[in-house]
């Protein structure tokens, strides 16, 4: 089948209504497209069958994870160009897939010839089996304790050595806080942890609960630098084992406790402060009121909550929101994003007084680019530590997420809230952002 790349480019233009903005190289070594642009490499014809059977993001994702699709050249540039081609983005509301609309339009009589040519290029047969890295099974009601544990395990129990490679020595898996792009990742992560501690006004002898403690970096920093007694909870067995070893290595076993425990199961409030850093995205809309009420109940009057959470743009019809298929199937099963305004409203409904919201969207773009660079620098080792498919998942989702933060499609915010006593004394200084 000579010149498969040219045929694919022609079909894509017919379906999408515009020429492809990147080069294409097909399995027969044919190549076409704008000179100097990144190249989409279609290694196997079955990538087209994946798209025929699941048009849109999931078909593309399966091809990428399986290694049927690849990119040569600047991955960020390729994703940026393809994003503008494949998705229609208005001033409000979710993006609309051009690819899905185009494939469905092939049913029209005028485009049936193109459909037959695409089927001929894809080859005969049923759709290929999805890559093994894809989540295929539901485990009970959404955001039940059992299902949440399975979802967390899928994302976090992929090997601590792999996360060390990606995250670096800080082992912090959330947005860092940068003085500038020349700072190191470790400096920026330490600055983030210290910012959280200062916003919470931690003092020696206080009790801190860190919800979704990851590998223990927050509780270790708070115990070492601020003298608190800290409890970290996670649903990941691998994270907990790693965090406990770090606690022991630092001689802090009398000061820091790591539990494999859901936030709904914490029995021993009140705490003086609670940090929730990059965890609330897992809670889900159906559980968010419960989440805020539980954290409110775990705080003493006058205690502070720091909720650090990714946010999406609001939609005209919020009921139409759904998680994109790639993220749900391969990255964060059952994860959900909410607009920051909704999060503030739900915190207030639980009884919190929201005192500060700091948007740090650009900081996450810088963080993600450093994580991608870490993975790409040790790519062969990263594939050995997990699996080739899993490494490809992480590279794609982190690079695409960096672009989403840069383009203001998603953001991240630190919300400081207080369980203000009935008398109204919040305990914050008049100039709150001194964080003393």
What brief labels describe this structure?
about 15% strand, elongated, Rossmann fold, four-stranded mixed β-sheet, about 425 residues, methyltransferase activity, 13 strands, transferase, single chain, alpha/beta, seven-stranded mixed β-sheet
Task: Note down, in words, how this protein is organized.
There is one protein chain. Helix content is 44%, strand content 16%. By secondary structure, the chain is of the alpha/beta class. The chain folds into two domains: 4-122, no CATH class; 145-419, Rossmann fold. A seven-stranded mixed β-sheet has the order 9-8-7-10-11-13-12. It has a four-stranded mixed β-sheet with strand order 2-1-3-4. A hairpin with a 7-residue loop joins β5 (87-88) and β6. α1 (4-16) packs antiparallel against α6 (112-122) and α2 runs antiparallel to α3 (57-66). The longest helix is centred in the last third of the chain and has 19 residues, at 388-406. The protein is elongated, with a radius of gyration of 24 Å. It starts with a helix and ends in an 18-residue tail after the last strand.
Give the topology, please:
Elements lengths: L3 H13 L6 E3 L5 E2 L6 E4 L3 H8 L3 H10 L2 E4 L2 H12 E2 L7 E2 H8 L6 H11 L22 H12 L3 H8 L17 H15 L7 E5 L5 H10 L2 E6 L2 H13 L6 E5 L10 E7 L10 H11 E14 L12 H7 L8 H10 L3 E7 L1 H17 L1 H7 L2 H19 L3 E9 L18
Parallel strand pairs: 1-3, 7-8, 7-10, 8-9, 10-11
Antiparallel strand pairs: 1-2, 3-4, 5-6, 11-13, 12-13
Keywords: Lipid metabolism, Methyltransferase, S-adenosyl-L-methionine, Transferase
Pfam families: CMAS
Protein name: Cyclopropane-fatty-acyl-phospholipid synthase
């Amino acid at each position: 089948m000579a010149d498969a790349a040219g045929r694919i480019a022609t079909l894509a233009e017919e379906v999408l209504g515009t020429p492809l903005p990147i080069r294409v190289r097909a399995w027969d070594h044919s190549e076409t497209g704008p000179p100097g642009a990144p190249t989409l490499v279609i290694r196997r014809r079955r990538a087209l069958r994946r798209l025929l059977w699941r048009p849109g993001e999931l078909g593309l994702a399966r091809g990428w994870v399986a290694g049927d699709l690849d990119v040569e050249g600047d991955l960020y540039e390729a994703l940026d160009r393809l994003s503008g081609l494949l998705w229609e983005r208005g001033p409000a509301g979710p993006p609309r897939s051009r690819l899905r609309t185009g494939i469905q339009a092939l049913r029209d009589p005028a485009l049936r010839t193109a459909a037959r040519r695409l089927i001929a290029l894809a080859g005969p047969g049923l759709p290929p089996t999805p890559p093994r890295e894809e989540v295929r099974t539901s485990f009970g009601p959404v955001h039940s304790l059992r299902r949440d544990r399975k979802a967390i395990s899928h994302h976090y129990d992929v090997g601590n050595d792999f996360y060390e490679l990606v995250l670096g020595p800080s082992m912090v898996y959330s947005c860092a806080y940068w003085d500038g792009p020349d700072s190191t990742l470790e400096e920026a992560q330490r600055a983030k942890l210290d910012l959280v501690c200062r916003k919470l006004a931690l003092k020696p002898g206080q009790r801190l609960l860190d919800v979704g403690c990851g590998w223990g970096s927050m509780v270790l920093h708070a115990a070492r630098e601020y003298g608190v007694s800290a409890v970290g909870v996670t649903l990941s067995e691998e994270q907990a084992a790693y965090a406990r070893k770090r606690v022991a290595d630092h001689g802090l076993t009398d000061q820091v406790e790591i539990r494999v425990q859901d936030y709904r199961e914490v029995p021993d409030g009140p705490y003086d402060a609670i940090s929730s850093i990059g965890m609330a995205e897992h809670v889900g809309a159906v559980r968010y009121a419960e989440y805020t009420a539980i954290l409110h109940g775990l705080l003493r009057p006058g205690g502070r909550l720091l909720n650090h959470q990714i946010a999406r743009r609001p939609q005209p019809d919020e009921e139409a929101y759904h998680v994109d298929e790639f993220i749900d199937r391969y990255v964060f099963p059952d994860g959900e994003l909410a607009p920051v305004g909704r999060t503030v409203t739900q915190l207030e409904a639980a009884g919190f007084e929201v005192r500060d919201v700091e948007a740090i969207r650009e900081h996450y773009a810088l963080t993600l680019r450093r994580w991608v660079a870490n993975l790409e620098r040790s790519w062969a080792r990263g594939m050995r530590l997990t699996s080739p498919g899993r490494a490809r998942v992480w590279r794609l989702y982190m690079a695409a997420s960096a672009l989403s933060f840069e383009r203001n499609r998603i953001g991240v915010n630190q919300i400081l809230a207080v369980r203000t006593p009935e008398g109204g004394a919040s305990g914050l200084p008049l100039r709150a952002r001194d964080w003393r």
